[in-house]
Amino acid sequence: MIHQADRVLIMGILNVTPDSFYDGGRAYETDAAIDKALAMIEQGADIIDIGGESSRPGADAISVEQELDRVIPVVRRLRAKSSILISVDTTKAAVARASLDAGADLVNDISALRFDPAMASTIAQAQAMVVLMHMQGTPQTMQQAPVYQDVVTDVCAFLMERAQFALDAGIARDHIIVDPGIGFGKRLEHNLELLRQLPKLASCGYPLLVGLSRKSFLGQILDLPASERLEGTIVLNAVAILGGASIIRVHDVKEGRRTADVAVRLRT
Question: What are the extents of the domains in the chain?
């Protein structure tokens, strides 16, 4: 069960890409990726989120074949070694289908089922879980002057519309998770306002995933590179948990697990 009042799930980020904003290239090879995944499980991860294509601002798109080559060997080998929930961070139905066939449980789609018309039916047929994330534009364009009438209202309306789309496609209600997309097509103040009003998003009826780990808006606040943003991440993860997040997505699993175990006691 994803939503639990007394426990927040930790989604550990496993980027098998050479160009992710923080850890690009560190777990690019399959052996290194599996070692990192097993270490995150030991540190308290509940979900491993495997990504084969960078979604950092301005990132170039890659082919289906490239993404499959990066992701599928890792999914297959991790499933052979662990029963942990495996998530695949992709917008491509072919990658989702192959990943689910290889043992993945969840598709983390930053496009909220918009970029590939076959994605919703692929997830429904597999009876898999899905994360629907809000984003303005694409990773290539999302930070080019994002504008909102009211960011909380706009994001909430988008997520509810996409959740209904998923339901209409045959995805089970209890398999849907929503994500406000912090840092995806948002200015600093948009991100902060979403965090201030996170309880509104958490009350929408679906488990809420929040990803804050070492993001660039923290760099704006702290004037520090990604490698120096751990403390800021810990603070914001605690804020997200107090605001009702069911899952936090992190690079630093040990710190995320400890943050969650303390912060959740303040909301029960």
Answer: 9-266
pTM of the model: 0.93
Would you say 223 and 251 are in contact if contact means Cβ atoms under 8 Å apart? Answer: no
Say whether 200 is catalytic.
Answer: no
**Which one of 92, 162, 186, 249 is the catalytic residue?**
249
Report H helices in the chain.
Answer: 30-43, 64-81, 93-102, 119-126, 151-168, 188-196, 198-202, 216-222, 230-242, 253-263
How far apart are the C-alpha atoms of 227 and 230, rounded to whole Å?
7
Is 36 an active-site residue? no
Q: Choosing from 70, 92, 97, 215, which is the catalytic residue?
A: 215
Yes or no: is domain 9-266 CATH 3.20.20.20? Answer: yes
What pLDDT does 5 receive?
Answer: 76
What is the amino acid identity at position 15? N
Residues 221-249 have pLDDT tens digits of 999 999 999 999 999 999 999 999 999 99
Report the alpha-carbon distance of residue 27 to residue 30 in Å, rounded.
7
225-231: list long-range contacts, CB under 8 Å, 24+ apart: 226/21, 226/22, 227/22, 230/255
